[in-house]
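Our consortium's second objective concerns turning raw sequence data into structural hypotheses that experimental partners can test. To show how far this objective has progressed, the report includes one record in full. It was chosen at random from the queue rather than selected for favorable results. The single chain below, 144 residues long, was entered without modification.
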Amino acid sequence: MASSVDMGGFDAYFEHAIAQMSPSGRRKMQNAIGKYLRTANRKRMTAQTDPDGGSWEKRKGTGGSSGRMFKKLRTNGHLKLRHQSNGLKIGWFGRVGSIARIHHFGLSERLQYGTAKYAARELIGITAADTEAIRSIIIEHLAL
């Protein structure tokens, strides 16, 4: 499960200026954007809120399931940045990605003892404030 930032969706000026950047400059800019988005999404996951500001549905009380959800999914080791020729992907990949997808979309999962249906909890996303921060990061890197 990953969320993509489409840098081509910005103004035509940004598209042209980004296309003129060197590959190493573009990669540095993508790293800065990725680090910002990873931090912003980590804070939202810690606060247990959706990108739109709504609270996640509470867990069903099963005795020992108290505490914050998705502690390991928030770490850099799991929430990864992947560079591609056309942009950057931020998310979870492999087995961790399938677990995150189940919880993000509220799917059901087959377990040893039956089936579990999870509530949808939007783990990763981009807000309007994030978009503005991305624009400022792009402008900062174009000025270099």
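The partners drew two points from this record. The mean pLDDT is 84. The radius of gyration is 17 Å. Both points have been shared with the crystallography group to help prioritize constructs.
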